[in-house]
């Protein structure tokens, strides 16, 4: 899996990102990672439609507002360049699994995930799922272990917060790739192996294991990426 990773840390990075080059089309995935702690969303309104600006003002939670704005800006920049059109003309739709998409001749699909301080957007010609989580050492996950993990996973996780979030993001990315999200029981997806370069999972509904890719982020975050195999 060849990944073209772009990091957005400041307003200026968005201007550079706006000039998408053709390297995008030579990779399996373009992965955009934004550090939302350092970006002022009022500087990004030029990449939002009028309705999106209005919607952003309706958010009560500042974190939710920031995540919405930055997610939309990233997607808008990519598709306005792909379609060579104005942002006002972009038409967000949803498929039968409620996954958002924008029709385009290149067949580029996208998936978004965000948490406090970070937004990730993945773009690919294949089906794609991404997930990111901030490692919260205060989060008590013991009550949900038996609901979301099989016994083998529980024994490995125990009280390890980082491992819990690695497993969680892997399951989320896979289920988002599949299109079911958390409508399926996460226990049906078993994590077989995790290291710094790959994740192996087994879906009880599939005959063979699936390989995912961990997303390398700062020490306080973990993420995972899942795409369809090349045909």
TrEMBL record:
<feature type="domain" description="4'-phosphopantetheinyl transferase N-terminal">
    <location>
        <begin position="46"/>
        <end position="120"/>
    </location>
</feature>
<dbReference type="Pfam" id="PF22624">
    <property type="entry name" value="AASDHPPT_N"/>
</dbReference>
<dbReference type="GO" id="GO:0000287">
    <property type="term" value="F:magnesium ion binding"/>
</dbReference>
<keyword id="KW-0808">Transferase</keyword>
<protein>
    <submittedName>
        <fullName>4-phosphopantetheinyl transferase</fullName>
    </submittedName>
</protein>
<dbReference type="GO" id="GO:0008897">
    <property type="term" value="F:holo-[acyl-carrier-protein] synthase activity"/>
</dbReference>
<dbReference type="InterPro" id="IPR008278">
    <property type="entry name" value="4-PPantetheinyl_Trfase_dom"/>
</dbReference>
<feature type="domain" description="4'-phosphopantetheinyl transferase">
    <location>
        <begin position="128"/>
        <end position="226"/>
    </location>
</feature>
<dbReference type="GO" id="GO:0019878">
    <property type="term" value="P:lysine biosynthetic process via aminoadipic acid"/>
</dbReference>
<dbReference type="InterPro" id="IPR050559">
    <property type="entry name" value="P-Pant_transferase_sf"/>
</dbReference>
<dbReference type="InterPro" id="IPR055066">
    <property type="entry name" value="AASDHPPT_N"/>
</dbReference>
<dbReference type="InterPro" id="IPR037143">
    <property type="entry name" value="4-PPantetheinyl_Trfase_dom_sf"/>
</dbReference>
<dbReference type="GO" id="GO:0005829">
    <property type="term" value="C:cytosol"/>
</dbReference>
<comment type="similarity">
    <text>Belongs to the P-Pant transferase superfamily. Gsp/Sfp/HetI/AcpT family.</text>
</comment>
<dbReference type="Pfam" id="PF01648">
    <property type="entry name" value="ACPS"/>
</dbReference>
